[in-house]
Fold this protein.
Amino acid sequence: MPANLPPQYYELEKKYRAAGTAEEKLALLEEMLSTMPKHKGTDKLQADVKRRISKLKAQEQKKGGKRTSAFNIKREGAGQIALVGPPNSGKSALLQVLTRAEPEVADYPFTTRIPLAGMAAYEDVQVQLVDLPPLAGEYIDPWLPDLVRRADMLLVLLDLTDDPLHQLDGLETVLAEKRIYLAGGGRVDEEGRGTIKPCFLAANKLDAEGADETLFLMREMMDPPRDVLPISVLGGDNVNDLPRLLFESLKLIRVYTKIPGKPPDMHAPYVVARGTTVLDLAEKVHKDIVDSIKYARIWGAEKYDGQMVQLDYVLVDRDVIELHS
Ligand SMILES: Nc1nc2c(ncn2[C@@H]2O[C@H](COP(=O)(O)OP(=O)(O)O)[C@@H](O)[C@H]2O)c(=O)[nH]1
Ligand SMILES: [Mg+2]
């Protein structure tokens, strides 16, 4: 046995021996590989762990794609947002502060092995955040890119204590291998057969020493340039604004319906796409209304109270609408 292995490694090795499923075994091997110091003394062991990973992987592939949707997270709330980024960028910590979910947060990579969803509230609506293992390493479970493909948007969380542009590039490379591309990103779907994902970029650990400078450089060097929201999960910077910004990035609005002569139902907004018209909304409220609707009255930011509008009026966030047949 080579010397100088951290105690954590032996813990992992023990867990690995006790692990029941191939999935657990793979995740533990990944962790072992990442906790192992990389030098001549560990060459053999590294190769051995890699061999075990390949073997398990091959076995799993033989069994077929059966596990592909093993972790299909049911969409809830206004939209499903998958948290992606390098190991240790604070994805689980963010989930913990924005939702009631209780993920494991730790300063070593691959703490998160299965997806964990939580609901983040913005006023009277919620967005669903799904914390994921990092898209990196020797083995990526097929359910992971599947989940990323299905999500409405990605929240890319980078780490300002490391090289965020390098992380972003690495992430986009791995995603491109799975034919997933960030909208407006650095990789282009040349064959036109991939999935292009809306995304929101955030850079975490703004509290850390030198983070300001890293952020500045990142913005200077980013190609193509994109908006990045600096945050600090630990320090709180911009974290409370995030649910609102995510909701807005999903290009959604809230609309409240009311019945003539009665106050509006302010508890259950219709959450609809930006660009939705009165007629589109009528369709959602009730099929029967669509045939008979003539006009609507609006109470909202861009209209005077009760103003009459036509069926092609484009609704704005927080409009109260009364449908008239
Ligand atoms: N300085 C600093 N550390 C953070 C911040 N957010 C998370 N961390 C630390 O980064 C490490 C990794 O966090 P974790 O949420 O497990 O990362 P994940 O691998 O992306 O899920 C933990 O030690 C956290 O305490 C932050 O805003 N500032
Ligand atoms: Mg995590």
Summary: The longest strand covers residues 116-122. The radius of gyration is 24 Å. The pocket of magnesium ion (ligand 2) is lined by residues 91-92, 111-112, 131 (CB under 6 Å). The mean pLDDT is 90.
